[in-house]
Amino acid sequence: MINTYQTSLAPPPVPPRLHRSDRVLIPTPLPSQGHSKPLIRFLVGVVVLHLVLSVTGFIYLYQTFNMGKLPASAVQAALLASEKQETFHRPLAHVVVQKQSAKEPQESQAGYLQLDTSHSVFKETNYYHENWLTIQQSGFYYVYSKVTFSKGDSKLPLASLIKLRTNENEKEKTVMKAYCNLNSHHGSTEIPHMCSATQGQVITLVKGNQLSVWVQNLSLVDYEEGATVFGIYKL
């Protein structure tokens, strides 16, 4: 068969469409340059004003901070506010001691001071068996104690020892020690002669460590309010 649909002739032109209206473009006049001058002046003024304010602020900050002209009262107030905020969140404990209960060993024996948990302050710290302070946060701590003795010992010097152990299952060791001298020949029953063994030291403590105060004879300690205390404070 002969393919009559193939040809080398170009296709016929598209006939013109009827009822077509040609668009006529009318050029619009350009805006007059006289109307844009106020806008340009306004923008230039804003830029200049912003530049002047920026330079003035930079000079003020430079003179205030780099030249040391910040008022001393403002610096002191800022430091005090920062210190108060940090102090509020620091762990501490201020412990008042009390006489051993009936279940504890006799007072004439050596032992650890018993904590009066009802009248003591514990902040981010804890206690164990009313004898040990337990550390909750690791860090550097200032540890202090004051043990007042109302009686003397004829054989041993009066001493207070701060013991440390890593946890309740480990053996304790002495990390601080203080002595005081009480001459039993001075004083009387009405006016007893007394002395206080006071100590304070910075110690690195780890979470879970425990601290306590040990004395050679619990019956020699003065348990009056404020006479014997123990505490820690995180630096």
TrEMBL record:
Gene Ontology cellular-component annotations: extracellular space; membrane
Annotated keywords: Cytokine, Membrane, Transmembrane, Transmembrane helix
Compartments where found: Membrane
Signal peptide: none
Protein origin, superkingdom: Eukaryota
Gene3D superfamilies on file: 2.60.120.40
PANTHER family listed in its UniProt record: CD154, TUMOR NECROSIS FACTOR FAMILY MEMBER
Stated family: Belongs to the tumor necrosis factor family.
Protein name per the record: CD40 ligand
Organism: Mastacembelus armatus
